Amino acid sequence: MMCINILFLTAILFMNSCFAAGIDETGEEKTICHFNLGLTHYQQNNFVGAIAEYTAALAMPECTGAVRVFCHNNLGVAYFLKKNFDAAIEQYTAALAMPECTGADRVFCHSNLGIAYYNQKDFDAAIAQFTAALAMPECTGADRADYHNSLGAAYCNQKDFDAAIGQFTAALAMPEYTGADRAVCHKNLGIAYYHQNNFAGVVTEYTAALAIPELVGAARATCHNNLGSAYYNQKNIVGAIEQYTAALAIPELVGAASATCHNNLEVVRQRYPRMC
Q1: Which of 18, 84, 167, 272 could form a disulfide with 79 if both were Cys (CB 3.0 to 4.6 A apart)?
Q2: Three-point CA angle 145, 150, 151, nearest 5°
Q3: pTM of the model
Q4: What is the pLDDT of residues 57-78, one digit of tens each?
Q5: CB–CB of 230/199 below 8 Å?
Q6: Residues near 204 by Cβ (< 8 Å), separated by ≥ 6?
Q7: Could you tell me how far CA 221 lies from the centroid of its own chain?
Q8: CB-based contacts of 246: which residues, under 8 Å, 6+ apart?
Q9: Neighbouring residues of 111: CB distance < 8 A, sequence distance ≥ 6
């Protein structure tokens, strides 16, 4: 799963109430107050308020160094969550242009920029950013696995399924990749195999995804449906029926996805009436 990253100041924090208290802050203190208030708005899902505060912080001449990097990144996150991807890209790019943007913070900025490009369907640019994140030694653990998965998804959208499989496999090789994220990666690998008509690979990956208890709701139903389609392509009609039926038993499967699964099951029943 693609996860955007907000950056936190841990060294210098002033109370958010400093404005209301009428304290005569220095420029640096006021910058930090704007940052903190932006973070509070963000945590309350008030992204308009967050944008206003981070913008105010960046307008101050005392907003320099790592604090400025964090403001650019976090402003980018707020714009991203408002679906203003152009503005998000501008802010992440500004953060990455600063020499103080280093280490794990730089990794997060590259990833955030990659996600913004991905949402604009600029997959070449997304690949470049996820690759840059993965090239950094500070890119480790579950975050590294997630960037492999994101890079694989970008390759899938370019129909470079061999490259996608390599990235999904790299993610799944990391023991830190667990829970729902791991299930999604198994699903993604299954999709790549499906496009290569490797139905045995599809069955393996969707079966692995369904074995993870954190895979729930519509995502689980989709997994059952796709596993059913793989079984159908293998002429395993009983297996296909079982999976379509399991998908339809999940109440979160609604709308077009439900109609597709119903249609799949009906096709099987019409072609193989003795198996139903």
Answers
A1: 84
A2: 95
A3: 0.88
A4: 999 999 999 999 999 999 999 9
A5: yes
A6: 190
A7: 20
A8: 224
A9: 4, 5, 129, 130, 133, 143, 146, 147, 150
State the burial class of residue 44 (Cβ atoms within 10 Å of its Cβ: 0-12, 13-18, 19+). Answer: exposed
Chain segment 182-201, per-residue pLDDT in tens: 999 999 999 999 999 999 99
With beta carbons less than 8 A apart as the criterion, state whether 54 and 78 touch.
Answer: yes
Closest CA to 82 of 116, 117, 36, 132: 116
Amino acid at 120: Q
Shortest CA distance to 115 belongs to which of 67, 149, 165, 158?
149
How far is residue 99's CA from residue 83's CA, in Å, rounded to a whole number? 28
171 exposure class (CB count in 10 Å sphere: 0-12, 13-18, 19+): buried
Tell me, what DSSP letter sits at residue 86? H
Do residues 78 and 92 touch, judged by C-beta distance below 8 A?
no
DSSP label of 60: S
Is the Cβ–Cβ distance between 244 and 272 less than 8 Å?
A: no
